[in-house]
């Protein structure tokens, strides 16, 4: 115990005196969280709150145009505007604005579109009631709604908007059809009640969006909820560079030679390092979380929500800290130079972060990569924090993630021990 | 009775590193008596560092037998480690810690603690003229001062056998003399010393017996004055060394 305390004290002093290293450990994740959260805030807002920007040129100025503009505005899919720089958009200016990337989509509703639909339906119903098949087939007044599409816009987004517009047209056609039909019927039946009854039943289906979760929580995913845990985990794992540097300096400076010539030092030394760096990781975590709760709201960003179980959050952070430190010890033990260790360490963290959903959320990845992401310890940790922060998860719900991180830590320590032993035998 | 048994006996020791074309050590036979200052001399690549690494438990031998104070190596390594002190060729200390902090740490690793450790450290810092600089970071020390701290870190636990790998490399005459004086005092107090150096003049004056190694073998063992007398036209240990190892530079 006395030896372990001496090792912890030594590691602590070395770390405290390495101001550049400390600054990197704490400033890097803070900067990452600030930059990534601020830059992604609009994107998340666009997707979650306002939707992606769409320009509508309503040359129709009738039921169809009004129905499409109102329908899109009411949907969460996009934010709709009819003006460019304060001026009413035209077909020409809309095309230009989309080409310049100001809008992902421009919709032009032609003049007389509603009237064309009305006339068509009226003619169809009149002809149908007159049972004149030839007249029905002869009716054809076409109207074209134009979509200007930004080439960078995702196909799924375009399809969703087009599908919505088709729904609005269909609804509008139905209304017109009923209106016309009712008018025709009224003239036959002289019953005004039918009009109201039909109109009330035009749209019996409503939609409701609910975030799927096994647990109760109404927190909506936003840039803060995504980025703070993601970049905190990334920063915690970057402790690998500091641990590798520490292990390699001991090799280069010869202290490792002296220590190996001493009795029972390897495990004590490694435990000393782990204790100190786990504490540093944990402080990093607390600092980043405090940043998400107290500082980001000052910049107009949402506050970070920690979910229902603070002990579970702290436990998962501790498991993540152990996994990150163990990985650092393993890379440091395996490396033959500080440069090699730092390179392998940073590249492996970047790789694990990329496949683990830190840089890009896993749900936008292809299926194969979503499967691959399951091997990244950063993903285990991130998914655990999502469960806690977004789904209101409890201690039990993050146990598999925590267990995976602890097993990873034990595995890295076992590999380090075996590597050290095999080097000695050689 | 145990005083008559050599503190170190090595028989037919070989070491071949993986992927090496030939063995680094080719059947070393050696006995170091208690209380000796034994010089291990040889050109670069002779196998001195490999031999020291095996004695310290940093690498395992390929074959052969080693007994240190009655314990077999490497099987009884944990029992042997507290009996030896190693002064590595590099300054094996933490540069951002002070001399005292370094010594407190390495002393603790040898199981020393409390008053005993603190008084040992203060005593040695005083003896090697480092008391005033004890609380300064090591990175501010001169080469000679670092070498002195490097020595103290290896002797705090009072080992039976002290192994020194080039302990005076890059130090000024004053520091070298201070180190040698203290090593002689330690030896007089009963500590056996194995010493490797390229300073043959220093070895001639300091060592009671030397072994000259080359190409992984011990080619000559004896007291410096006897070896000089045995070698034709040799005036000092350097002449003996060069006549045995030839003048061609080694890599």
Describe the structure concisely for a colleague.
The complex is a heterodimer of chains A (426) and B (251). Chain A is mainly alpha-helical and 426 residues long.
Structure notes:
The complex is a heterodimer of chains A (426) and B (251). Chain A is mainly alpha-helical and 426 residues long. Chain A is built from 17 helices and six strands. Chain A has a four-stranded mixed β-sheet with strand order 2-1-5-6, with helices on both faces. A two-stranded antiparallel ribbon of chain A has the order 3-4. By secondary structure, chain B is an alpha/beta fold. Chain B has a domain at 2-89 and 161-245: P-loop containing nucleotide triphosphate hydrolases (Rossmann fold, 3-Layer(aba) Sandwich). Chain B has helices spanning 48-56, 77-80, 99-109, 114-127, 143-155, 173-188, 200-206, 224-230, 237-245, and strands spanning 8-15, 25-32, 37-41, 63-68, 71-73, 84-87, 161-165, 192-196, 209-214, 217-222. Chain B has a six-stranded mixed β-sheet with strand order 6-7-8-3-9-10, with helices on both faces. A four-stranded antiparallel β-sheet of chain B has the order 2-1-4-5. The radius of gyration of chain B is 18 Å and the shape is globular. Chain B starts with 7 loop residues before the first strand and ends in a 6-residue tail after the last helix.
Characteristics:
heterodimer; A: 426 residues; mainly alpha; 2 domains; 4-stranded mixed beta sheet; B: 251 residues; alpha/beta; 4-stranded antiparallel beta sheet; 9 helices; globular
